[in-house]
Amino acid sequence: MNIIVTGASRGIGAELARYFVAQGHQVLGVSRNGDAMETIRAELNAASGEGVFHCLAVDLTRDSALEAVSAFIKSEWGRVDRLVNNAGMLLHQPFGATNDAQVQKMFEVNLLAPGRLIRRILPYLQEVKKGHVVNIGSMGGYQGSAKFPGLAYYSASKAALASLTECLAEEYREQGISFNCLALGAVQTDMLAEAFPGYEAPLGAAAMAKHIGHFVLEGHEVYNGKVLPVSLSSP
Ligand SMILES: NC(=O)c1ccc[n+]([C@@H]2O[C@H](COP(=O)([O-])OP(=O)(O)OC[C@H]3O[C@@H](n4cnc5c(N)ncnc54)[C@H](OP(=O)(O)O)[C@@H]3O)[C@@H](O)[C@H]2O)c1
């Protein structure tokens, strides 16, 4: 399969790339940090052969990122089987100290960029019979879950992504494209360390990526338009 993973330079996204390649799939990683993705590319190509991991060093909030992704798909793949909107931005700040520019930037990364990428690759998802888009949400944005000070807008951005997922599943049901959102609990990554300094998560990025990866490949067989909590802990 051809799988796009955003936020593949580190954390859960990097481990997702490793998981998919180990399962015999091709991955396009999309993140800003080209050096980090080149390191992953060298590792994966050495282990599994040339051309299993491709990467584009782009900022997903810019139109040029969409152009680069489109150009890659047109010239290399022609179709996309899976999209994982994993790239995310954290804003950890008391609500009263936030300013709109920061909030707008975070919503760009966490909500608008996934939406734009979905729109852009819809024709390529329609090329396959059962395309699956998985949006990576958060327990913070899951209705009724425990909430934490300093994460109000971050949680709101993930709640919006969850809602977008539910709506798109209905809108594209007839075209055979499935949309699901996984609301993650704590995973030991750089982002978690920033959100909850000193807290130790019950699982690491590789363990979570294994679970997410399996869901991305097969979850649409039994779920569509769902927002699913994937969490061992609070946070
Ligand atoms: N870790 C947790 O406990 C936890 C819990 C709930 C939800 N999540 C969600 O899970 C996802 C992955 O989290 P993580 O912990 O692995 O985070 P992370 O280590 O901070 O990684 C975030 C990734 O997003 C990419 N990214 C951020 N802004 C970008 C932009 N403008 N354009 C392109 N790429 C961008 C980063 O790459 P570059 O810097 O190279 O661009 C990086 O690869 C996120 O959506 C996060 O909100 C995580």
Topology record:
Layout: E1 2-6, H1 11-22, E2 26-31, H2 34-48, E3 53-57, H3 63-77, E4 82-85, H4 100-125, E5 132-138, H5 152-171, E6 178-184, H6 190-195, H7 205-218, E7 227-230
Parallel strand pairs: 1-2, 1-4, 2-3, 4-5, 5-6, 6-7
The chain binds NADP nicotinamide-adenine-dinucleotide phosphate.
Task: Explain what you see.
By secondary structure, this protein is α/β, with parallel strands linked by helices. It has one domain (2-230): NAD(P)-binding Rossmann-like Domain (Rossmann fold), CATH 3.40.50. 46% of the residues lie in helices and 16% in strands. It has seven helices and seven strands. The chain has a seven-stranded parallel beta sheet, with helices on both faces. Helix 1 packs parallel to helix 2, helix 1 packs across helix 7 and helix 4 packs parallel to helix 5 (152-171). It starts with a strand and ends in a 5-residue tail after the last strand. Bound molecules: NADP nicotinamide-adenine-dinucleotide phosphate. The site of NADP nicotinamide-adenine-dinucleotide phosphate has 28 residues, from helix 1, strand 5 and helix 6. NADP nicotinamide-adenine-dinucleotide phosphate binds next to helix 1, strand 5 and helix 6.
